[in-house]
């Protein structure tokens, strides 16, 4: 599989390199935007588009904010036009009236983004533009509304049907691998040797989603350990001196790290089918693997304990285990959803809380965030559709008998 | 290059085959649509989506019309909600109000299409769905408005930036080549031998645009002959017994056939940069090629002559040439645009009318449509940006001195 | 898999095209051979080599015979030098003496072929050169000895370890598929539609061995039908109107046609592992396939019957079946090997005679060669190593109980 | 191009993994060799071959020497048989007698190697076997003659016509790149960051020859710097903080490091066309590059100076420059060839001595070996065929006027 992915990269990368824009004109960026939006010629528009992207990339933060101001102001919708159009449509819902309504209801900045995207290599530039937007314009600022237009387009462009799942291995291009090092957000990768330990041994796998127009940029990736039995310590799982298992011996796939890579794609959902697809692929390659679990951090456990007035240092292992179970099963946000974001992610995907471990992540970060506790969320094909419904519908946190018992133990205590 | 394209095909083709939907439930299709739109779970939604697509594919025409009725009716916008939302937005254009407006202004059928598209292999099925829509619902029927939603999505999905230009050659997969035979709309391809004459000789090229999610389906393709000098007869150009030129000897690239392939993508513009990109690619491969022209049919010439009361049979070659020039330069539709659709396409791309030929297409079709006349539109990098502006702005038909002279000759006659 | 093969083709094809030789000099071909053999410079030799190959390709048959004369005469070994070298080696078998012996014992024409082969694209030209040799020089002619040098080299170059097994499908390049049509030697392929019926349906497969330096040239290919049960009629197997089986339903893989493609590789064995490897690949893709058989012609049956004074027309089905069994099990050449060449091939590979069918090939060719009879040779992983030893050692024809019973029935009759 | 190469790798790598040998039998290795040589069955032989290779890989040095003993003794030629065969051939040079002679003159160990090589993945194992041979058996030991058989086969197998030139870049698989780090023999690569500086910037290139059956193993590679003008200091060339040139600005390609990778392919010549082919490829990509030179070490300069009684420390720059010129142009081995091995390599390829630099390699190694001096050998397409003849024929060292002037200056001094 690995060449297929490399090929994909190359096809698009080549296109990118070929079509470089001609030298910039003296026209202002706002002028170029006007040109691009007014021309019916795809070809002449291409040059304007290339310049706009090029100039945006070179702007400082103040310049970028001004650019976003322009998008938010001049390139927005006109309420009057929308009202006129919806009235006409209601009176006679014929195609022409509907077309006029759609035109009025869509701000020009959406069309601008589509036209910018015609330039070879523009997609990652537009993703970076949104990353700038999220960084520079506060979420409550009225101008932040233009992010909804980016979201609207990116949701179409990065539709799950357009993504490609690619294995990441020691055979992958160094240019991709260095991004895995950079983006790993859960258990940091120190060096190329550390990376190699995560992707080369027969019992280690890594998979990422890619978009054909951003072939060098993983969107999200998951690291997997193949094991016998369900592990309860990430340090043991990643120990430098462990003896690798042969892939055929494994009965369990452990998803021990999932990292989003693109700030500019925040909130665009494509991760929740990653685990499912990787599970299916692994199962078809290695039929003896029957258990699919995570070994997940609990990043908000100590924060919640502090709020609850619990001192982690005061708890022995048993008490910490019970407290962790209580946190996972009962701690909620205002909206009734679990307090912990990792919990929300996996439960939302249909996983259930399978087991709780103490002394499971003894790194500084692990101790600080969760007093060393970790949790296995289990992806059981038999139950996850139902789990998902119970969680999505009733906000019910499904858990194994063992974890529920911990809760009762605690209650009894 | 040819493998790159094949690889692309394979990557996606594989994904398609793997993820077959589970057996269908007893739920109605409308029920499944409701499930799909209401679930927040991408995974559980996937199954509903696969069934909806599967069922639609098996419907007869009456069933399909009923399906479109449902899209047009229940899955449309609500004018009241739109009005409420735009009023609130006008009062306070904050992100939350803008989000509510966008939600109200977008019909549920757009979200439906996006969710259907998450299924591997769904994109070509959705394109086929629109082909059915265009075939079954008359253009003036109010329900035809739902086509605007398809157009909206497809314009995003088939953005030029996501398309890949692939050469088509005798090295291409037979599965692709048979589609070239099937889709050729200008000069029919009789047989595999005929096809081979179009793609295998050194002085023949063919290029197509593909979308990564439809790797086996060319979207539009162009056939090119490399020649010395500009040819004036398509039968000579395609003669079975001609001696092929070596590619290095050629100074001219002749685009003698452009065919759209996907009924379901009608009106989604991606063809107008095809010729430009092919020209650039050829130029970089063969720097001696400096002239880029078409050898184009004039499909509405005799129709117009009949309207004008001119009997083609009564004209000698010179008169026919002059009449053809007059047609191309002066015959207009009500909106001031050229009468001939091929003319509108090439002039709209920035080409100009370069030369007119009689006895140029002596096939039955050529004689019937244009009394055997053909035209070269020329793509001159020096002038096409300006040509495009003159045509797009002033509807001016730019032509060479020679063709303009024919017009004056005629006028003088 | 199909792209992988296409890629392979492209890599080498490209190299070929790039390195075209400069224009030929006035030096004679024999002079160029001398230059090539005497230079120590790989680069300057390359030009001479390219010219030699180029010129050979343009020679008429008389010219080619003269070329072979030169190889046989001036570029052979010198018995005196061989004797001197072997005596010196016997006296002191040190490396230097061994090197001198190897040099004396190898004719210069072998080194010539190796140096010619350095030119990009030379390998297929050298294979074609041997095809000319086999065609032009009678087998008993003394000069035919130079074929042993080609054989020696080709056996090294086309070592099984260097070959690649590639599936041939409707996704394969037309340029490869047309060669399948041309080379099919058992059941002729009439047309592209006929070809498509052999490679496109889910229950039809085709595989070929390729060499990396001849990526567009299949060396040998096998056509496979996936069936339920073992078929007894090739016309039924290939019927145009048959309903294809889904690949998952099949329990049997039928090798119904094996064709060598390269006259210039006659006698270079690489076919005998083709069936084994294809069987393994199919088994790993489709575990339900457990039976691997051929449906083979018996090309010498009627010829043998004529020699034995048996008139096929006089035999009813039962008698023909028994006679065919007798032929397969008992008819031998002078050297004790089976009379029938197809039989020798499959038995030599470890297959056994599984079943005999009458009315199984009713084509003109089938009736003429074998009165319509065919045979299944079965490749049973459990027994083929033992079968091979029994056949290779004792020339024993292993057969199923049923076929052996036919023989006894006949004997009893 | 980079994916093409990766694909190549994958095709063969996959084959390797699939065909694992069954568990070993109790038969001795010599017995297995006998089985392999006596069987006519390719398939049954395959298992024996896989075991032989597997066992050899696990032998200690003493075991390997015993294995080589067996090859040298029992699997050699018989002088008596050779003499009988050559006499018969002389009496009647018919094909049968020639066949008998070829059989007698080729030791069984060559056929053994060919049969071992049929196992998927065997080629690199056989190359490693020869590396062991060269390491364990002294060159003058009589048993070292078996190396000539390896050489004979490898010369056929690694024929230039079978090699593929692949660019090595930051897009190459990490598994290949780590080998570049390991094999770099001229200017050591410290780290992944150092490697990246050698392959990622636009003005840095790297190319390697690969064999299709060893796709993960570069055979030889060259590192190239694109520069304006000819550089005279390797430290400046490789400086971490240098500003990269755009590839279009460069007029010179500097081959600053060439490294052989495979000890088991020592003496198998494929390197001498590497520079030529890389030059051609670069020229076709970047037509402005017109100068092709090396920046080469002079590894034996101080050694020779010591022999000549010259103390490097006593020389000023000018004197060192003149002495270096004298060394390069006049210092010879007993056979009249240049004293310096790097000199022999480049002059043998047709390069000439272009310029001499002092203070050019100030690393410890550079100071120790050549007192910091380096040399540019220039590959001039206009002169290299003639240079090669002058060097190969008359052992003449061709040098630029400037370098020759240094020599005269020295002589005059």
Query: What would you say the CATH architecture of the largest domain in chain A is?
Result: Up-down Bundle
Cα-atom Rg of chain A, whole angstroms?
A: 25 Å
Structural class of chain A: alpha+beta
Task: Kindly report how far apart the N and C termini of chain A lie.
Answer: 53 Å
| Approximate helicity band of chain A | 40-55%
Our estimate of the beta-strand percent of chain A is 5-15%
From the structure provided, what is the oligomeric state, counting identical versus distinct chains?
A: homotetramer
What is the CATH top level name of the largest domain in chain A?
Mainly Alpha
Shape of chain A: globular
- CATH superfamily membership of the largest domain in chain A: Malonyl-CoA decarboxylase, oligemerization domain
What's the main sheet of chain A like? 5 strands, mixed
Number of helices of chain A: 19
Q: Give me the CATH fold name of the largest domain in chain A.
A: Butyryl-CoA Dehydrogenase, subunit A, domain 3
What is the strand arrangement across the widest sheet of chain A? 1-2-3-4-5
Largest interface: A-B, 80 and 80 residues
Q: Count the domains of chain A.
A: 3
Overview of this protein structure:
- The structure is a homotetramer of 413-residue chains.
- Chain A is of the alpha+beta class.
- Chain A has three domains: 13-157, Malonyl-CoA decarboxylase, oligemerization domain (Butyryl-CoA Dehydrogenase, subunit A, domain 3, Up-down Bundle); 160-294, Aminopeptidase, CATH 3.40.630; 301-412, Malonyl-CoA decarboxylase, catalytic domain (Aminopeptidase), CATH 3.40.630.
- Chain A has 19 helices and seven strands.
- The first copy, chain A, has helices spanning 2-18, 29-38, 42-58, 61-73, 79-91, 95-105, 108-116, 122-136, 146-157, 174-183, 192-199, 234-237, 274-285, 301-308, 317-330, 341-348, 364-370, 384-394, 401-412; strands at residues 164-167, 204-210, 220-227, 252-260, 291-294, 352-357, 374-378.
- In chain A, the strands form two sheets. In chain A, strands 1-2-3-4-5 form a five-stranded mixed sheet, with helices on both faces.
- In chain A, helix 2 packs antiparallel against helix 3 (42-58), helix 3 (42-58) packs across helix 8 and helix 7 (108-116) packs across helix 9 (146-157).
- The longest helix of chain A is centred in the first third of the chain and has 17 residues, at 2-18.
- In chain A, 47% of the residues are buried.
- Mean pLDDT of chain A is 89; it is low at 1-21.
- At the A-C interface, helix 1 of A face helix 1 of C.
């Amino acid at each position: 599989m690995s060449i297929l992915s490399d090929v994909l990269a190359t096809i698009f990368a080549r296109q990118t390199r070929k079509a470089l824009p001609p030298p910039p004109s003296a026209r202002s960026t706002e002028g170029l935007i006007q040109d691009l939006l007014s021309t019916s010629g795809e070809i002449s528009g291409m040059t304007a588009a290339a310049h706009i992207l090029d100039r945006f990339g070179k702007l400082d933060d103040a310049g970028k904010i001004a650019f976003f101001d322009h998008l938010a102001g001049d390139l927005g919708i006109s309420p009057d036009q929308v009202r006129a159009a919806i009235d006409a449509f209601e009176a006679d819902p014929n195609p022409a009236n509907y077309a006029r309504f759609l035109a009025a209801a869509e701000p020009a900045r959406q069309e601008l983004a589509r036209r910018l995207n015609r330039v070879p290599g523009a997609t990652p530039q537009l993703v970076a533009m949104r990353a700038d937007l999220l960084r520079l314009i506060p979420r409550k600022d009225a101008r932040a509304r233009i992010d909804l237009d980016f979201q609207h387009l990116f949701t179409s462009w990065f539709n799950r049907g357009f993504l490609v799942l690619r294995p990441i291995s020691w055979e992958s291009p160094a240019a991709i691998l260095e991004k895995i090092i950079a983006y790993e957000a859960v258990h940091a990768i120190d060096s190329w040797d550390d990376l190699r330990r995560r992707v080369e041994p027969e019992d280690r796998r890594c998979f990422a989603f890619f978009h054909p127009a951003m072939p060098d940029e993983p969107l999200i990736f998951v690291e997997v350990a193949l094991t016998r039995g369900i592990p309860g310590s990430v340090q043991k799982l990643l120990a430098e001196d462990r003896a690798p298992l042969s892939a055929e011996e494994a009965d369990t796939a452990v998803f021990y790290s999932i990292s989003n890579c693109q700030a500019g794609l925040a909130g665009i959902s494509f991760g929740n089918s990653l685990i499912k697809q990787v599970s299916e692929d692994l199962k078809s390659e290695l039929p003896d693997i029957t258990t699919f679990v995570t070994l997940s951090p609990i990043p908000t456990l100590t924060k919640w304990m502090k709020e609850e007035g619990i001192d982690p240092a005061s708890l022995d292992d048993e008490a910490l285990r019970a407290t962790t179970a209580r946190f996972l099963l009962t701690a909620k946000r205002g909206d009734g959803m679990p307090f912990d974001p990792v919990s929300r992610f996996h439960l939302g995907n249909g996983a259930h809380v399978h087991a709780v471990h103490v002394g499971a992540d003894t790194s500084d970060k692990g101790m600080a965030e969760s007093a060393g506790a970790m949790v296995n969320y289990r992806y059981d094909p038999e139950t996850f559709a139902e789990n998902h419904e119970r969680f999505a519908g009733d906000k019910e946190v499904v858990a194994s008998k063992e974890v529920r018992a911990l809760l009762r133990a605690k209650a009894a205590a």
